[in-house]
Write a structure and sequence with these properties.
218 residues; 22% strand; elongated
């Protein structure tokens, strides 16, 4: 016995048929035609999988080629076809870990093509989020590299978190201040544009901070 529900589907035991043109065609098809349609669907799926596999293989090759000559076009930058490994890792502060051992907090520095220490470039400093409990500087590696490809010196900061160091948000804030002071003090070494003020190195004239969540509080 057949029974139509509100969706227009008729049930007969465990079988159901959609009341549309496609279902009518399927019901009127012979076994040969149905098998032919199944074969066609299999071929389509196979072609799609081959295309996806080719793209997956080709993307790293393209990225490696771009990395080899250290030259990226705007299109490659838009595709995020660039290396995420920092160009420099610099320690800015030494703190005590949970086990009492000293640990260096580091800055992950991304440099633009043709960078020299004598440059006076704009800079961007990133503080990752994580609700004070977790996270790491690698969160902002893509953004850091993107800005470096645009000519800026980009820095992603490591700071103490509750899960790793067992500290409070106060220590996170202290580390953020220490990182900014270190960057300002070493602006000339980093090739960042400094501003002279009464014979002293002051805050970098073109340095910007970017962060979210806990990093935004820093």
């Amino acid at each position: 016995m057949f029974d139509w529900d509100n969706s227009g589907i008729v049930y007969e035991g465990r079988r159901n048929w959609c009341r549309d043109a496609t279902s009518d065609d399927n019901l009127s098809m012979g076994s040969g035609q149905l098998q032919s349609r199944k074969s066609m669907n299999t071929i389509v799926h196979l072609i799609r999988n081959v295309i996806l596999l080719t793209a997956a293989i080709a993307t790293p090759v393209i990225c490696a080629a771009a990395d080899a000559d250290q030259s990226w076009t705007p299109e490659q930058i838009g595709w995020q076809c660039f290396p995420l490994k920092p160009d420099k890792t610099l320690a800015y502060k030494t703190v005590t870990g949970k086990d009492g051992a000293p640990i260096e907090l580091k800055l992950q520095v991304f440099l633009p093509q043709g960078w020299q220490a004598s440059d006076q470039r704009p800079a961007a400093v990133f503080f990752h989020g994580g609700g004070w409990h977790g996270g790491g500087p690698d969160h902002y590696y893509p953004q850091s590299r993107y800005l470096a490809l645009r000519g800026m010196v980009a820095i992603s900061v490591e700071y103490r978190t509750i899960n790793r160091f067992g500290t409070s948000p106060k220590e996170c804030v202290k580390d953020g201040k220490s990182a900014m002071r270190w960057v300002k003090a070493h602006a000339a070494e980093l090739g960042i544009d400094p501003e002279a003020d009464r014979g002293r190195r002051r805050i970098c004239r073109r340095a910007y901070c970017r962060s979210h969540r806990a990093g935004a509080c820093l």
